Amino acid sequence: MFAFTIDEKIELRLHEEHHAEELFALTDRNRAHLGRWFPWVEHTQNVDDTLKFIKGVRRGYADNEAVLTSVWCDGNIAGTLGISRIDWNIGSGEIGYWLGADYEGRGIITRSCRALISYAFDTLKLNRIVIKCQPENTRSSAVAKRLGFSYEGTLRESAKHNGKLHDMEVYSVLRRERSDAPR
User: Fold this and answer.
1) 73: closest CA among 44, 48, 108, 46?
2) DSSP-based three-state secondary structure for 181
3) pTM of the full structure
4) Which candidate in 29, 31, 91, 133 could, as Cys together with 137 as Cys, close a disulfide (CB 3.0–4.6 Å)?
5) What phi and psi, each to the nearest 5 degrees, are found at residue 138?
């Protein structure tokens, strides 16, 4: 089972079916907060929707297509973080994340991403990690910048959410660009 200790308070764990109620409750409490950025929020209406999500991401992990985890802080689910859209031909994956509003601003995502990126490069042997976010999501783009990702550009009107088309900024980091990469 995948579990990754970040520090004494934070841990990443694969989603488990018996956590569906807790994950749904976090999503439901943060519906307005998350709904600004994520189209899946409006389709997550009950625990069964969250359970379906968990079963899907566990299949993705078993099929070697993704590593999607719950972020645990002080023994509670605080959000999610993972690598999806893994393309083994080019060694690329996309990081996505969210936290409940009560957990933001504490460096949880930045520290967790740093650990997951190391796992992606060192264990999965990926070469490129991508983060995409809407330009208005300044907290998310700040995470990418803090982690040393390079801004690649903006995919204009490439996502649809709340009935509107949205631009998506693309940030990436290559294995050789890591500060601890062998020279």
Assistant:
1) 108
2) coil
3) 0.89
4) 133
5) -65, -30
Q: Which CATH number fits domain 3-126: 3.40.630.30, 3.40.50.1100, 1.10.10.10, 2.60.120.20?
A: 3.40.630.30
H/E element holding 121?
helix 108-122
Give the C-alpha distances (Å, rounded to integers) separating 152 from 86, 155, 171: 19, 10, 5
Question: Shortest CA distance to 72 belongs to which of 34, 111, 41?
Answer: 111
Neighbour count for residue 176 (Cβ, 10 Å): 10
d(C-alpha 38, C-alpha 133), whole Å:
10
Number of other CB atoms surrounding residue 77 within 10 Å: 21
